[in-house]
Amino acid sequence: MEKNKDKKKPLKLSSSGRLQIRKNLGPAGDRPKNTGSKKTIQIVFRNKNNQQKSSSTTQSNFRGSSSFRSQNAAQKITPSPNFFNQKNRDFGKNKKTTETKKTLQKKSTLKPHDEENEKINVKKILEQEEQEFDKFPSLAKLKRAREKEKLKAQDENTDNKIGREVTIPEVINVQDLANRMAEKTADVVKTLMKMGVMANATQALDAETAGIVATELGHKIKIVNDDDILKGIEDFDDSEELLKSRAPVVTIMGHVDHGKTSVLDAFRSSNVVSGESGGITQHIGAYQVKNNNKEITFIDTPGHEAFSNMRARGSLTTDIIVLVVAADDGIKPQTIESIVHAKAAKVPIIVAINKMDLSTADPDKVRNQLLSHEIIVEKLQGDVLDVEISAIKKTNLDKLEEAIHLQSDLLNLKANPNRSARGTILESKLEKGRGSVATVLIQKGTLKIGDIFVSGSEWGRVKAIIDDKGENIKNALPSMPIEVLGFDSNPLAGDDFIVVENENVARKIAEFRFNKKQILKNKVVKTNVEEMFEQISAGEAVSLPVIIKADVQGSAEAIENSIIKLATEEVKTSVIHKSVGAITESDVALANSSKGFIVGFNVRAIPKARDMAKRDGIDIKYYSIIYELIEDIKNLLSGLLKPELKENITGNVEIREVFSISKIGNIAGCFVKEGIISRNSQVRILRDNVVVHTGKIQSLKRFKEEVKEVKTGYECGVMIENYSDIKANDIIETFEIIKKDRKI
Fold this sequence. Notes:
Blueprint: H1 2-6, H2 15-25, E1 41-45, E2 66-70, H3 95-103, H4 122-134, H5 139-159, E3 165-168, E4 171-173, H6 174-181, H7 185-194, E5 204-206, H8 207-216, E6 220-223, H9 226-229, E7 244-245, E8 249-254, H10 260-268, E9 285-291, E10 294-300, H11 308-316, E11 320-326, H12 333-345, E12 349-354, H13 363-371, E13 385-388, H14 397-411, E14 414-415, E15 422-431, E16 435-444, E17 447-448, E18 452-455, E19 458-466, E20 472-473, E21 475-476, E22 481-487, E23 496-500, H15 503-521, H16 529-538, E24 542-550, H17 553-565, E25 571-580, H18 585-594, E26 597-601, H19 607-616, E27 620-623, H20 626-640, E28 644-661, E29 665-678, E30 682-687, E31 690-702, E32 705-706, E33 709-711, E34 715-720, E35 731-740
Parallel strand pairs: 3-6, 8-10, 8-11, 11-12, 12-13, 24-25, 24-26, 26-27
Antiparallel strand pairs: 1-2, 4-5, 7-14, 9-10, 15-16, 15-23, 16-22, 17-21, 18-19, 18-23, 19-20, 19-22, 28-29, 28-35, 29-33, 29-34, 30-31, 30-35, 31-32, 31-34
Helix pairs in contact: 6-7, 11-12, 18-19
C-alpha cells in the first residue's frame, strides 16, 4: 500500500485549463521560484450539487474543469452597509441553519498546493476528477438510448408506409417482387424465412407465395395469368380486304439418298448436295425459286432416320409436301415416316417419282406401294398428284412446278404484309464474327431492319436480313426464308418469331418464358420407397455421359435422340449438355466433372480447350457424318455391357490317396482321368457327385518338381488353396471361365 501511495499519478488537464494556468501565472510561471514574491493558485472543482457560481473569468463547461484565481482575488467579499437595513428581509428564519453550519466541521478546500510543504497534492485532484467522471452515463447506456431512437424512427416509418397494388405473375423472383413493392430485398427475405421458405434474391417464387409475402408487408395483390403477360403477342385474324396472295411454302421430304436435294438443285440450278457431308442433308435448308413471275419457297429436310424432329417441324411450317420416292428403290422407312408427318399436319401431298432416267425404274411399283399407306394417286383414280421426274436430266420439272402452283391455287394462300411480322425458326447456329444466326420463315407481316422481336425465351433487334442467295435486304415479306442477325442468344429450332412494340415488352416476355422454362427444368421427380427398392433389386444401370456440340441446333437434337434410342435396360446414355458452336473450356470442364466425353459434329475445339482436354485426359470425338457417330456410340455402349460368362470343363481328376505333411497340410495324390489339370485352373471338389468346395490350386507337382500342367493318364500331387478336408475317392473337376463380349 505504501508503495502505491508513493507512486504519483500524472495530472490530467484540458487544453483550456492549461491555457488558463499560463494566463494566471504569467511569464514568471516558467521561471524558478522567487522567495520574495509568492504567487499561489487555488483550484476549485465544481459538481452538480455545488450551487456556488464561479467568476466569469474562470467559468468552463468542461467536466471536472477548475476555476483558477490568485490569492489576492480570493479575499472575502464584505456586504455593503445597507444590506442588513433592507426591508422585507427576515433573517430570523435562517438562524438555525446558520448555527448548524457553524457547528459542522469545515471541509478543507482542495488547494493546488499544501500550505505546510508548499507542494501541489496531485492525488486529491485525481480522486476528485474520478468522482466527477463516474457521474456521467456509460457507453452501454448511450448505445441503448440510440437503439431506442432507431426503433422509434422505424415505428414512425411503418405508420407512414404506403400500401401499393402489386401485380404478381405466375412466376416472379424475390428481387423483382421487392422492387414492385418498393421494399428492401432483405425485408422480403426475412418475411419468407418467417414462413419457412429459405430463398435468396434470385430465387423464383410462385404467385401464391409472393401474394402471401406482399399481404404480410401491407400491400394489395393482383395476380396476373400467363394470358395477361402474353396478351401483347397473341395472333389475330386479318380482314379479307388486307390479305394478299403469297408464295406457297413447299417441304421436300422422303428417304435418304432418294434425290430430294438434287430435285431442289435442278430448280435452283445450283449444287447444294456437293456441300453436304457424305452427300446427305443434315440440316434444314430453305430457298426461294422464281419462275414465270411465280415464287415457290422450298424447305429441304433431312431424310436420315435421326432427323425425325426436323421433318416434323418442316411439315408443320409448310403448305404443300413433295414426297420424293426413287423409282428404282420404292417405299422406304423414312418415306413412311414422312407420310405420317404429312397426315398429322393435314398437309396435301404431291408425289415426285424420281430417277426415271435409270433402266431399273418402275413407277407403277411405287404407286402400288403407296396404296398400302392410303395414298391413292390420280392415275389410280385418286386425288393425290404424282409426277415422274429426273433431277439429273431435269425432265418434267416444269410439270412438278405446275402441280405445286395448281395445289396452291386450290389452297388460296394469302397473308397480310402490312402488319408486324410473325414467323418460325427453322434452324439456328453460332457463327464467328456474326454471332447467333437463325433461319426464319416469315409467315405474316413484313420484317424490317431495327424491329425488336421475341423468339422463345430469347429476344433481340434485327441487325441484318440476308436472303437465300446471301444478299442483304431491307425487309422480308410473307413466305420468304431469311437469315436474321441480332439475337442475344441462340433460339431453339421450332420456336416462334414475333415482332413486338418495344424493348421493354420483349425483355419481359423473354424473362417470363425463361423463368417458366427454369422451373420446369428444376422440377425434381420424387420416387417413393417401393420404386427405390425396385431399382436396387434390379441393379443400377451403367450410364454413359455425353456432351454434344454441333454446327446447328437441329443436328444436336437429332444426335441426342439417336443416342437415347440406343439405351438398354443395362446400359443407358445421358446427354449432359447440348449446344451449337465450337468446343470451349467450359465444355471440357463439364466433361471432366461428369466423367464423360465430348462429341463434336461439324465443329472443332478451340486451342485452349484442346490443350485442357489433353491435360485432363478428356476424349473429344469429331464427326461429319451421322452414321459414323451412331455406330461409334453403339460400340462404346457395347463395351459397358457385362460380358457373357461361359464355363468350360477342362479335366477330371480322381484323388487316390491323401498325404498329411506337418507344417504344410494335406496333399492329394491324384490320377488324371480326363482332360488336363493346370496350375492356373479353377477346381471344384465333388464328393458323391455333390460340390463340397470351389477354389484354386495352390501347388501342382509331379514327383518332386513343380509343373505347370499334367495331362491324361499321369499321376500328380495337388494342394488346394485354403482347404484341407479332402478324402480318398473325391473327384477334382477343373474348369475355366470364358468371357464373351456382348453387343447392342
